[in-house]
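I can't quite decide. Please look over this sequence plus structure tokens:

:::
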Amino acid sequence: MAGFATAPGTGLYGASKFAVEGITEALHGELAPLGVRVTVVEPGGSAKAAKAIVDVIEAADPPLRLQLGADAVDQVEAEFALVQGELDTWQHVSLSTAV
């Protein structure tokens, strides 16, 4: 999960995980026309992760990102809420720079 949202004191670790996220996202777009699918797995504290990963590997249309565990889902939802709140608050500034 450190590649999706990180915390103080884990900057370098989080940065390396963010890099994996970015590479995977680029590969997703680059390889899709060739029929190759890629998924980055974002595990939380789940002991049932292996079965879920196998299920995704066998899926016809696997996700780009797969969060595993309630804690992982909660963290993604919290990060989305934070980003949405900032976007709503600062959208007027962002849009003021449009060409």
Summary: Residues 70-95 form the longest helix (26 residues). The chain has one domain: 11-95. The two ends are 36 Å apart (CA to CA). The mean pLDDT is 91.
